[in-house]
Amino acid sequence: MDEAIEAEQMLRPDAEMAFEAWTTLIGANREQIERLRESRPDADFYRPSAPQFRPGRVVTDDLDWVLEHMQPGDTWLDIGAGGGRIAVPVAERVDAVHAVEPSEAMREVMGAARDAAGVDNLHIHDWRWPPSEGVDVPVADVSVASHVLYDQDDLRGFLGAMEAHTRRTCIVVLGDRAPSGAFEP
Q1: Structural domain spans, the chain
Q2: d(CA 89, CA 170)
Q3: How confident is the model at residue 181 (pLDDT cuts 50, 70, 90)?
Q4: Cα–Cα distances in angstroms (integers) from residue 184 to residues 19, 25, 56, 58, 153, in the given order
Q5: This prediction's pTM
Q6: Which has the closest alpha carbon to 89: 57, 131, 47?
Q7: At the topology level of CATH, where does 50-175 sit?
């Protein structure tokens, strides 16, 4: 093998190394947050801030980019849909959206946004991701996970389940640091 190619391959991490590094990073971030936390969060961590996640409250460039992936007749899966920032505008343009959201407060905000938009094809599900055994998650044309991976220990399982439930395109949106970035050392 050419020495330059061999050296390049040695410097490039493989997928297993990347998944292990991700798990280490998430664990260290969690430990730091727990060490600095002044009070325990409520059972529904997002209850106090859920209204901030309603569609249209904050305009971001990523929404336009995500919307470019829509095709007529699509079914979408929005994993960690929050208050419906992506799910509601997508539902206005495709056949169906299945929004996965474990936070009751976020589901309430999303339900109100769905009703205000007058869409009846946005199905809101109280599921976690990856889905538990026996949960009947539909296969979608497109799946999106926007700003939800920051605390996912099992990145491989999350992405594997996402791919298993998607026919055409998986979209992941992340910032350059977790929202808890203020807690970083």
Answers
A1: 3-40, 50-175
A2: 18
A3: low
A4: 20, 11, 29, 25, 17
A5: 0.81
A6: 57
A7: Rossmann fold (3.40.50)
